[in-house]
UniProtKB/TrEMBL annotation, chain A:
<dbReference type="GO" id="GO:0030313">
    <property type="term" value="C:cell envelope"/>
</dbReference>
<dbReference type="InterPro" id="IPR006311">
    <property type="entry name" value="TAT_signal"/>
</dbReference>
<dbReference type="InterPro" id="IPR050490">
    <property type="entry name" value="Bact_solute-bd_prot1"/>
</dbReference>
<protein>
    <submittedName>
        <fullName>Extracellular solute-binding protein</fullName>
    </submittedName>
</protein>
<keyword id="KW-0732">Signal</keyword>
<keyword id="KW-0813">Transport</keyword>
<dbReference type="InterPro" id="IPR006059">
    <property type="entry name" value="SBP"/>
</dbReference>
<comment type="similarity">
    <text>Belongs to the bacterial solute-binding protein 1 family.</text>
</comment>
<dbReference type="Pfam" id="PF01547">
    <property type="entry name" value="SBP_bac_1"/>
</dbReference>
UniProtKB/TrEMBL annotation, chain B:
<keyword id="KW-0813">Transport</keyword>
<feature type="transmembrane region" description="Helical">
    <location>
        <begin position="291"/>
        <end position="310"/>
    </location>
</feature>
<feature type="compositionally biased region" description="Low complexity">
    <location>
        <begin position="1"/>
        <end position="14"/>
    </location>
</feature>
<feature type="transmembrane region" description="Helical">
    <location>
        <begin position="230"/>
        <end position="253"/>
    </location>
</feature>
<dbReference type="InterPro" id="IPR035906">
    <property type="entry name" value="MetI-like_sf"/>
</dbReference>
<keyword id="KW-0812">Transmembrane</keyword>
<feature type="transmembrane region" description="Helical">
    <location>
        <begin position="130"/>
        <end position="155"/>
    </location>
</feature>
<keyword id="KW-1133">Transmembrane helix</keyword>
<dbReference type="InterPro" id="IPR051393">
    <property type="entry name" value="ABC_transporter_permease"/>
</dbReference>
Length: 472, 320
């Protein structure tokens, strides 16, 4: 029956096309929230969107804090969005992309590296809220060292409350040290003591053992050596202001006179003779096989290498403890000491906290989140293990390091108390360009002869001038 | 062709209507269909390309004349971005690096692909040919970032497998990723390893299309071994070589993933490429105007090189 077959064929084709069309319309309708970006946290509803650096697992881990927050503020709905990134620079790039796309979060967890970029362009100061809730906040500031708070001051205003932080202390492998016949270094060990320690470790350990492993980054790379030698690759000054905060919350602090309206890095300083001296010291370590030639941004395998006893020493903060524990290192397998002394024993640190975006829909609600996140209750939920150093002194205790080590965990917070001039990562608003200018010249500076070092520092000075000339 | 007139169950078969009139109506509709139907089918592609390709190109060119940091409103600066880009030593070095990279990487990529294609096509049994076609193409389907992260471990100076293997034969550790020469070598090596598979497949196709009779004729004329390849294979493969080289050069000019992940452009600027500078200008320094200006310059260079290749092809490419 050809006619029937034809009709059947036509019917089938039409039905198929209709079904296809209906399917496309249905799929479009079903995916409408995705197409319009309405499923982006905070978009399409009134919830407070909070961006953190991390994975979906990190976002899920915050659920307990969100639940606790909901008990206090049931009227504020919160959505946490975890953004995966290689480093903080990468994270800020992604936040800026969200800003460009018209979907900025309301609150962002920002580290020192981006603090001034956010303060200059994106963040809302906390001053009015702190003045309003001064009585409530006194307990927080009494528990947090002013050096950490000062890192988030910018032109006299405070933009973030430190939640966690890390200083560049010196980790060492206790077995390698013992093998070299050495005891725990003294608190005030010097850069020459450090070099001797490395030489002894190298002599006593296998050929593939690396006495000093360091990375080419803004934190923990060359900068701690520059700070210890009382210099930096950028000229550091401080802006006036901030008395309202210091007099209000730190009037009786012994380091009150040191505090300011915030750090400023306005000019390059790579041509300072002390910068040359510091780089030359590191060049010597590389040349004599005591330290590695650092790769740019390297160090991702560092924990594994350290835990497998192939590295003697490396600069790192409290964030390393949990990683070493999970990598199988026993609490006696490693320990930590202050960074070696040179002209000073000033350390480098980085800290992080929530910043309220200028574009936040409900800044009052955002402040409630920031305030709650700085409470002891919230921080105890967020930091059950030592995968960073909590900003609250009371939380850095024996209980936190029980079962993981290090034995001398007190070094972490003592760094701030013993060396109150300890300063933050030098990160002006042009941080990304500044970091690139530093990193790209470090390997060359420490890899060749003295001539190459001078050329690399000249190049760094020129690159930094260009970077700082640009508006963030 | 009008489907309406040939369909007995057409919708125009109303009682009392003259067939001629009906035919005229359907053919008119048919003409309208003929005229608009192709456009209807093309519309999704045209709209898609317009929104996702053409519009960004136009916007990017326009952006090159503005200073814009995403956060503040853009301001018109005329040709300032181009002037700054031309004077920027980092941009100049990165373009020079890119040119050197293209010359070395493309030569290696095409040479390796051609050599292996001839070897696989002529020397191996059919079942092994299938295996190697897949094996050589395999790296191309991997993420360049993942490959580069993996290679970074392999080439680590202290703990990498490469230096460990070298140490077995008594060669001291090579600072692969921390010296300008070593970094450039690794970036080129990783790039070529990952990309030669595509050129290889093109050459395999080209070799298969060369008639066996041509080789037989060459043999009768006394050509053997390399002479046969020189006088038969290479000339007849020249159209494939043109396509492979155009694609390889365009790809190589846009190299980003390997140097970014392996070396971050360092040490110094030794492995910084043009696209890396675009990324850094836009997303790290927030100078989207300058990034667009560099993008425009790079596009013009790619267009010029491609045009030159096609022009030269008239002299060097032989079509059967």
């Amino acid at each position: 029956m050809p006619g029937t077959n034809g009709a059947l064929r036509q019917f089938t084709r039409r039905t198929a096309l209709t079904a296809l069309g209906a399917g496309i319309v249905g799929a479009t309708a079903a995916s409408w929230p995705r197409l319009t970006g309405a499923d982006i946290p905070g978009r399409g509803d009134n919830s407070l969107s909070i961006a953190i650096m991390g994975t979906a697992a990190d976002a899920a881990a915050r659920q307990k804090v969100i639940d606790a927050f909901a008990k206090v503020h049931p009227e504020i709905k919160v959505k946490v969005q975890a953004i995966q990134a290689v480093d903080w620079k990468d994270f800020f790039t992604k936040i800026l992309t969200m800003v460009a796309a018209g979907t900025p979060p309301d609150v962002v967890y920002v580290a020192t590296e981006g603090a001034q970029l956010f303060a200059e362009k994106l963040a809302h100061p906390l001053d009015e809220y702190l003045r309003r809730d001064a009585d409530h906040m006194k307990e927080y500031f009494a528990d947090v060292h002013p050096s950490l708070v000062e890192a988030f001051m910018y032109k006299g205003s405070l933009f973030q409350l430190p939640i966690d932080w890390n200083a560049a202390n010196m980790y060492y492998n206790t077995a390698s040290l013992r093998q070299a016949g050495l005891e725990r270094p003294a608190d005030n060990w010097t850069h020459t003591d450090f070099r001797s320690t490395l030489a002894a470790m190298k002599k006593a350990n296998p050929k593939d053992f690396t006495p000093y492993y360091w990375t080419n980054r803004l934190f923990g790379g060359v900068v701690p050596w520059l700070y210890a030698n009382d210099t930096s690759f950028l000229k550091e000054t401080k802006s006036p202001g901030g008395e309202w905060l210091w007099d209000g919350f730190y009037a009786n602090d012994p380091s009150r006179s040191l505090r300011s309206g915030g750090y400023q890095w306005l000019e390059p300083n790579a041509d300072d003779p002390r910068v040359f001296e510091s780089f030359d010291y590191l060049r010597g370590l590389v040349k004599d096989g005591l330290g590695v030639r650092p790769e740019e941004g390297g160090g991702s395998a560092l924990i594994g290498l350290f835990a497998s006893n192939r590295i003697g020493t490396t600069p790192a903060g409290g964030y390393w403890v949990q990683g070493l524990h999970e990598a199988g290192m026993t609490e006696d397998g490693f320990d930590v000491q202050f960074f070696p002394k040179w002209r000073t024993q000033r350390h480098q640190f980085g800290t992080a906290g929530y910043a309220i975006m200028k574009t936040a829909k409900d800044k009052d609600a955002a402040w409630e989140w920031v305030k709650f996140s700085s409470s002891l209750e919230a921080m105890q939920i967020v930091f059950p293990t030592p995968n960073t150093t909590p900003a609250r002194r009371s939380m850095v205790n024996e209980q936190l390091y029980a079962g993981t080590g290090p034995r001398n965990w007190k070094v972490f917070y003592d760094t701030l108390d013993r060396f109150p001039t300890t300063g933050p990562i030098p990160a002006p608003p042009q941080q990304a360009a500044v970091e690139t200018a530093l990193m790209k010249n470090v390997s060359l500076a420490v890899s060749g002869d003295e001539r190459q070092l001078k050329d690399a520092l000249s190049s760094m000075q020129r690159d930094l001038e260009l970077a700082l000339r640009r508006q963030p | 062709m009008s489907t309406a007139t040939s369909t007995p169950t057409g919708t125009g078969s109303e009682p009392g209507r003259k067939p001629a009139h009906k035919g005229s109506s359907t053919s008119k509709r048919g003409r309208v269909q003929q005229r608009w139907l192709p456009w209807a089918f093309l519309a999704p592609t045209i709209v898609g390309m317009g929104i996702f390709t053409l519009l960004p190109i136009v916007a990017s060119i326009a952006l090159a004349f503005f200073r814009w940091d995403i956060i503040s409103a853009p301001t018109f600066v005329g040709f300032d971005n181009f002037a700054e880009v031309v004077q920027d030593p980092t941009v100049r070095v990165s373009f020079l690096n890119t040119i050197v990279f293209v010359v070395v990487a493309v030569a290696l990529q095409l040479g390796l692909a051609l050599g292996l294609a001839i070897m696989v096509q002529e020397k191996l049994p059919a079942w092994l040919r299938v295996f190697f076609r897949s094996a050589f193409f395999f790296p191309l389907i991997l993420s360049a970032a993942s490959v580069s992260i993996f290679m970074r471990y392999l080439f680590n100076e202290q703990f990498g497998v490469v230096n460990w293997l070298l140490s077995i034969v008594g060669i001291p550790a090579v600072p692969w990723l921390t010296t300008p020469g070593g970094s450039a070598a690794v970036v080129i090596l990783v790039y070529v390893w990952q990309n030669f598979g595509f050129s290889f497949l093109l050459f395999i196709g080209g070799l298969a299309s060369i008639p066996v009779e041509t080789y037989e004729a060459a043999s009768i004329d006394g050509a053997t071994g390399w002479r046969k390849h020189w006088f038969v294979t290479l000339p007849l493969l020249s159209p494939t070589t043109l396509v492979a080289s155009v694609m390889a050069i365009i790809n190589a000019l846009q190299v980003f993933d390997q140097p970014y992940v392996l070396t971050r452009g360092g040490p110094g600027d030794s492995t910084r490429t043009a696209v890396m500078v675009i990324f850094e200008s836009a997303f790290q320094r927030l100078e989207f105007g300058q990034a667009s200006a560099i993008g425009v310059i790079l596009t013009l260079i790619i267009m010029a090189i491609t045009a030159a290749q096609f022009r030269l092809s008239k002299r060097f490419v032989f079509y059967q």
